[in-house]
Amino acid sequence: MTFRQGGKLDTSGVSGGGSGGRGGRRGMAVGGGVGGLVVVLIALFLGVDPGQLGLEAGPTGDQGQQTGSAQQFQAHIDQCDLEQANSDTICRIVATTESLEDVWTTQLPDQAGMRWVQPHTNIFTGAIDTGCGAASSDIGPFYCPADQNVYIDPAFFDEVLVRQLGASPSGAAQMYVVAHEFGHHLQTMLGDIRRSQRDPAGPSSGAVRVELQADCYAGLWAHYATTTPAPGGELPLLESLTQRDVDAIVQTAEAIGDDHIQKSGGARVDPGSWTHGSSEMRRQWFLTGYEQGSMQACDTFRGQL
Ligand SMILES: [Zn+2]
Question: What single-letter DSSP state applies at residue 86?
Answer without folding.
Answer: G
